[in-house]
Amino acid sequence: MATRREVRCRCGRRMWVQPDVRTVQCSTCHTVTQLYSLVDIARGANRIIHGFQQLLRQHQPQHQYHEQQQQQQMMAQPPPRLLEPLPSPFGKKRAVLCGVNYKGKSYILKGCISDAKSMRSFLVQQMGFPIDSILMLTEDEASPQRIPTKRNIRKAMRWLVEGNRAMDSLVFHFSGHGSQQKDYNGDEIDGQDEALCPLDHETEGKIIDDEINRILVRPLVHGAKLHAVIDACNSGTVLDLPFVCRMERNGSYEWEDHRSVRAYKGTDGGAAFCFSACDDDETSGYTPVFTGKNTGAMTYSFIKAVKTAGPAPTYGHLLNLMCSAIREAQSRLAFNGDYTSSDTSAEPLLTSSDEFDLYATKFVL
């Protein structure tokens, strides 16, 4: 049974009426009161709103009205899915390849995206890396999360080492600008931190070696191995590894101890090796000498050395082959009188998280 509701007349008298009653007369002052339900009130409000909207349409330009309609439709629809999921981080072979040309900038480069694509072909065709285990970050990528911004490169580096296990082979390749900045924590011998320059480094900042070491190097567990190939200026110790190998033109070499009492730079039991285009205070670049189109000297010489070195070469053998390729390019440039703006005079540099005999160690991806 429906509950009666209370109604007060303007004279103050209280009356009780059934829910479906629409009018009631006061027995004291004989005033007739019109009653409304909540449904009636809602319907009346809707009619008022609808009339107000029609009045606005009459006095509003058509193009503004249509723009508002489109905005309302867009708000009603679910947002498009822009970010595709990353591949599974678990697998024996994984790679992150970054090529940054800095299109539209005054410091534009011309061969870095090609370097990343060349490295991908090399890893898939020569080293047996599954194509879906390689994460490419270049300005040519369609997905927003594959553009080489600082945020995306950081995310990709974390993906590379996530859940790494024994026997994993991980590769990090960067072709683009590198630089130096003041060392604020006192862990650098020369007082300078090395850094990689993502596409948005002007607004978001660079990725310095301390962070790269923390993300890529320290999580490596026993049996896991990381190889980094850095084709950038000032890249000698950009992974902040504990030991640096310097090789002379006659093939002799020595290891420098770059360990710091202020910070641990090693791994969690794994091995990390970095092939850099030049020393920390040197510049590197690209040249058309190798292939007829602009190519990073470091990337090209590394791929060529691995291809021609034979099965399981030593790191020393690879460095010798890379140095020979660079010197050959210098000779061809000098002979042709065709110098580019790139500097190919720098020698490749190897840094490592392990202290070992260079020539006795095998290079296996």
3D structure, described in words:
This protein is 30% helix and 21% strand. The chain is built from eight helices and 17 strands. Strand 15 and strand 16 form a beta hairpin. The termini are far apart. Mean pLDDT is 81; it is low at 337-345.
SSE layout:
Layout: E1 5-8, E2 14-17, E3 23-25, E4 32-34, H1 38-59, H2 62-76, E5 93-99, H3 112-125, E6 134-138, H4 150-161, E7 169-175, E8 178-182, E9 192-196, H5 201-204, E10 207-208, H6 209-217, E11 225-231, E12 243-247, E13 253-257, E14 271-276, E15 286-287, E16 295-296, H7 297-308, H8 315-336, E17 349-352
Parallel strand pairs: 5-6, 5-7, 7-11, 11-14
Antiparallel strand pairs: 1-2, 3-4, 8-9, 9-10, 12-13, 12-17, 14-17, 15-16
Helix pairs in contact: 4-6, 7-8
What structural keywords apply?
365 residues; alpha/beta; 8-stranded mixed β-sheet; 3-stranded antiparallel β-sheet; 8 helices; 21% strand; Peptidase C14 caspase domain-containing protein; Pept_C14_caspase; Metacaspase
Spell the H/E element sequence: EEEEHHEHEHEEEHEHEEEEEEHHE
Q: Report the sheet with the most strands, covering strand number, pairing sense and barrel closure.
A: 8 strands, mixed
Shape estimate: elongated
Average pLDDT value? 81
Taking the alpha carbons of the first and last residues, their distance comes to 82 Å
Low-confidence stretches: 337-345
Global structural class: alpha/beta
Strand content: 15-25%
Helix content: 25-40%
**Strands in their spatial order, largest beta sheet:** 6-5-7-11-14-17-12-13
Number of helices: 8
Q: Could you tell me the radius of gyration in angstroms?
A: 34 Å
Count of extended strands: 17
